[in-house]
Amino acid sequence: MTTGYKSAILFIGCSILAGAALSNGTVVSAEETFDYPIQVNAEQIMDQTYQEGASSYQELQQKWRAQLVSDQYDEGTPEIVNYVQTLSSAAEDLYQKMDKSPDRTYLWPLEAGNTASADLTTQFTKLQKLALAYGTKGTSFYEDATVLSAIEEGLDFMVTKKGYDGKKYHGNWWDWQIGVPQKFTSILMVLGDELSAGKMQTYTEAISGYVPDPFKQLYTKPQGVFIDLAFIPNFVTSGANRTDLAQTVLGLGILQQDAAKIRQASESIVDVFELVTKGDGFYADGSFIQHNTIPYTGSYGNVLVKGVGQILSITQDSEFEMAPEVIQAFVENVERAFLPLIYQGEMLPGVNGRSISRAPSKTKTGYGSTTMYNLLIVAKFAPQESQKKLKEAVKYWMNENPAYYLTNTRDYNDLLMTLSLFEDSSVIGNQLPFVGTKLYASMDRFVQRTSSYMASLSMYSNRVSSFEAGNKENKRGWHTADGMLYLYNDDEVQFNQAYWPTVDPYRLPGTTVDTVSLQDEISAFTTVTSKEKWVGGVALDDQAVIGMALNKAGTKNNGQVLPMNLQGKKSWFVLDGQIVALGAGITGNTTASIETVVDNRLLNEAYEYQVLSNVGAITEPIEKSRKEWLLLNSDHATASIGYYFPNEEMVDVVSETRTGTYREINEAFPSNDVYTGEYRKFLINHGSQPSGATYAYVVLPGIDEAQLKTYAEEKPVKILENSANIQAVTLKEQGYTGINIWKADGGTVAGISSDKPVSLVKQEVGVKKAYVLSEPTQSNVKMQIKLPKDYAEILTMSEGITYDSSQDIFTIDFLNRNGDSKQIVVE
């Protein structure tokens, strides 16, 4: 028996009975099976039969229902009163606007921007709102027979007149298989015994037609023209789509009292959090990929966590409960994948894919509320240590804006979880959930969190795409992974709701770009990978070395390959309070200009700013001169940012006001709200035909003018080399040396030699020296390294490292490391 998840029996207190095979009669598996560090096998699971009485299904239904509505109304809790009154008002408005005439052609008019299939989801969403009001004590519609009739007649209308009958469809598959079924199932959970057995059977059979199991997916077809169901042959769903479908299958199993469906729903989600080494899913380093090559933790990853969380929380303490080992594996994935990627309750944009172009909620803090609630759901069934860790993290972020999280919950369950968290004095929530650096090598992302700021890098390679556009979303995301540096500090507005519709999409911070004009991306699901595989680095505590071989050859715009040929080597050497950026080998031809964007900051209109430099204060709209340092100076000290140029650079300082709407960058979730942003750009213009151009600068968050002048005088950064072959720096006082060697046959710098490409950080503390290194091309090679012979003893070496004392050579095996690092410690 193998020990991968797919071979496991998944439940405690039950055995897999005869006849419990998948409903399509086949064994569905991923292309490869990889063992998770925590292994699950049949011998570890209790083999015990269970009772399949109707009461068990009713208990599961009541548990699901209790997440949506309540038969209790606590008028002494203002947050509950607010929730109930808000729900009541929304339902009253919908009921008033609902077409109840016998010859109606719709329940509610088509909303602007909706396709025909999207309108189905919208109609069921509104019916669900009525059902929630019907089932929630305290609303004006609570247990109102007239409203119940309107809901039931509305469901009949959607099934018989609007074609949601389980037999035919049109348009976007998602609406028929995910959007509608999830709303429909929730309605049925709330209404329960209020519906006749015949009606319940009709409705669940209709849903089952579109969602026969969690593995099948329909083709997307033209809107408005009904055809017979057309499932994609030889295709198996993955990631968030799998968990969305599994939620519905679980609901159907409960409502139809079908144990096999419940088991199938639970079984089907296990391999979505089993570790993968390619394609969709979670990776060992916490990366999450969807659509094969897109970092998507914040969007599809959140959907996946919500789906898995729903299934595990519903089945918890029932005969269908999963084994503790499986649950623990999932929880550990969530911790690795999510906690380092959240700032002030928000998922970082670099892992949100095309959803960055969607109109956000009205306040910055709280945009990540979905993540907060999902983490609380996971905490419900997590092992005790992880439960405390997740609750502490969520409370830390929620404490930054409690009112938002208490008034913007998705459902009753979110509200109760949030109230309980704030009332729990044993959960303190006063510590940053993550501090340090983390490299997500499997999705070309990096994060640094300090006590005063957060930084993130978005890159791409032959493994990871530059961006995703699709459904007319993210139409100007062309350069969001060209080495984009996200720096969050106390300015409160950078990357917030006004940023994406107003920022210059050709000049995103940290990027080196060909600024030639591009068309808005409207082709179907555009993704472009690079020809380069050298993207990655190493992260050690609060220090890191990151590198990206930039190659724009093959870039497409609306399916057409562009004549872009920009190439270059980009490195970032990261310490607490300092980010050293080097660029070399910058070469290309363009009809526009090739530029490196030192920064592009959206200013907070409530703050005061000055741009200061070693050549004086800069007040002109456009100013060009050689500079040793620049300071974006704010009256809020922690919103100030310094920029030091070790070799002096010709830097353009541009002040501009920009306006825009989300409709311009996203037609699928349109918003006509006009945003205005005041920006300061700091640009290094390499010209239209650079050959081997370079740059060097240091980003210094939170520094003031006096400190920056001192920094420039002391020149703590020593650039050891900045070429297309090697980029390396040292900061002696910090005991830090960072090296990226680019050449296929390696190189030598600072007394360190390698015969292969390598990324390395050397950390000196007293007489101890730690060398942490990775093979960023992820080519499964063996590498030979020579270190300076300034030590007397090798203290530790990672597994897979051998030392030949006769030649003073370390041989390091990077087989299956996938960009992960190894360490040598000497003294």
UniProtKB/TrEMBL annotation:
One of the record's GO cellular component terms: extracellular region
Signal peptide: 1-20
Catalytic residue list: 291, 300, 354
Pfam family, one: Lyase_8
GO biological process, one term: carbohydrate metabolic process
Domain Polysaccharide lyase family 8 C-terminal: 718-782
Record has Lyase as a keyword: yes
Keywords, alphabetical: Lyase, Signal
Ranges for domain Polysaccharide lyase family 8 central: 438-704
Residues covered by the Polysaccharide lyase 8 N-terminal alpha-helical domain: 64-395
An example molecular function term from Gene Ontology annotations: carbohydrate binding
CDD domains attached to this UniProt entry: GAG_Lyase
InterPro entries: Chondroitin_lyas, Gal_mutarotase_sf_dom, GH-type_carb-bd, Lyase_8, Lyase_8-like_C, Lyase_8_alpha_N, Lyase_8_C, Lyase_8_central_dom
Transmembrane annotation, as ranges: none
Record carries keyword Signal: yes
Family, similarity comment: Belongs to the polysaccharide lyase 8 family.
Protein name listed in UniProt: Hyaluronate lyase
